[in-house]
Design goal:
Helix content: 25-40%
Largest sheet: 7 strands, parallel
CATH superfamily of the largest domain: Glycogen Phosphorylase B
CATH architecture of the largest domain: 3-Layer(aba) Sandwich
Distance between the termini: 65 Å
Number of helices: 9
Shape: globular
Order of helices and strands: HEEHEEEEEEHEEHEHEHEEHHH
Length: 346
């Protein structure tokens, strides 16, 4: 019976991996359009469920269009548009687009396994939102250093979402211009409440699930009576409301490109404790948060936080919010994008 279960599990994993690899293949894109004004096309997975990475792609297109640079999201599926957040983003389907020699194709690292299918005669920019996972589908090969990027002669630049990830990209693909385009934290959704947050502790259910479970065991064993708010699969507006109600937020970031949950929690006025996860290093300042590097450190830091006065936690949260909402803005992203595309847009 055990052997049969193991075989079934193995087959299920193989099938899931095959489906994932199919999803990561970019659609066929036609070329041959006439030269002229540049349009920047962002190839985007058609996921109609909360995905921070997809939200960022839509935002880039909105910001570029607002800056006078024509841009559009490209989905493989006709008439598809993400509906889990409000948007009026310009969206087209792959079969509607004919790429011209002056256009720019922006492709997320999600499609790394299918980079070879991308048109070779259109300038390519790879938008890497998760440098630590960019090679998940690419086997290391000493005969192909820098793969898959080194096999893309049309690659003219790369975008990253944090200084940490730019440094990692430089290690794996030296010589390609890499521009950091800051994430945007929406202050209309993520902001402190009008009253002090409650004695609640929140985290986003996405990373380090075993540590999250173990942390709750520690809290109950230490008789911490704070309700735990597990945030998962809800619209942005609800995420913001849940975070505003938490005095402490636990960051479970793990090899992330940036780490939006701790940034959004800081913007919402939470005192944030936890892992920076690589890309979030720039967020954690000891004057308003506490960064850890191990589970034991996490448990101790969370216990300390729950023993602090609520007004003290709220004061730290307000400082964090002021910093995040002043820097991670749409205006800042516009400046970053204009710099990144300055030599590519006509």
């Amino acid at each position: 019976m055990t052997e049969l279960l193991q075989r079934f599990t193995s087959l299920a994993r193989t099938a899931a991996k095959a489906r994932d690899m199919r999803d990561r293949q970019p659609p066929e894109l036609r070329t041959g359009g006439r030269a002229g004004t540049t349009t920047v096309y962002y190839l985007t997975p058609h996921l109609d469920e909360p995905s921070g990475g997809v939200r960022v792609l839509y935002r880039h297109v909105d910001v570029l269009n607002a800056a006078g640079i024509p841009a559009a999201v490209v989905h493989a599926r006709r008439n598809f548009r993400c509906t889990w957040f409000e948007n009026d983003t310009r969206v087209v389907s792959a079969d509607e687009v004919v790429l011209g020699p002056d256009d720019v194709l922006v492709v997320p690292e999600y499609y790394a396994a299918g980079f070879a299918r991308l048109p070779a005669d259109v300038p390519l920019v790879v938008f890497n939102q998760g440098a630590y996972h960019a090679f998940d589908t690419v086997d290391p090969d000493p005969g192909r250093p820098g793969a898959p990027y080194s096999q893309l002669p049309q690659l003219v630049g790369m975008l990253a979402v944090s200084q940490d990830n730019r440094a990692l990209i430089d290690l794996t693909r030296p010589g390609v211009p890499v521009h950091v385009c800051r994430p945007v934290v929406d202050g209309a959704i993520f902001h402190p409440g009008t009253t002090a947050p409650d004695r609640r502790l929140g985290y986003v259910v996405a990373r380090r699930p075993l540590e999250a479970r173990l942390l709750e065991h520690v809290l109950y064993a230490q008789h911490v009576d704070w309700p735990v708010v597990r945030i998962q699969g809800v619209p942005e507006a609800e995420v913001g409301a849940l975070m505003r109600g938490c005095a402490v937020f636990v960051s479970l970031s793990d090899l992330d490109g940036f780490g939006m949950p701790p940034a959004e929690a800081m913007a919402s006025g939470c005192f944030v404790v936890g892992y920076a996860g690589g890309g979030g290093e720039e967020l954690f300042d000891p004057t308003w948060s506490e960064q850890v590097t191990s589970f034991r450190g996490l448990a101790d830091a969370v216990l300390r936080a729950t023993r602090r006065p609520l007004d003290e936690l709220a004061a730290h949260g307000r400082r964090a919010s002021e910093h995040v909402l002043a820097y991670y803005t749409a205006d800042g992203l516009r400046t970053d994008l204009e710099t990144a595309f300055a030599g590519l847009v006509r």
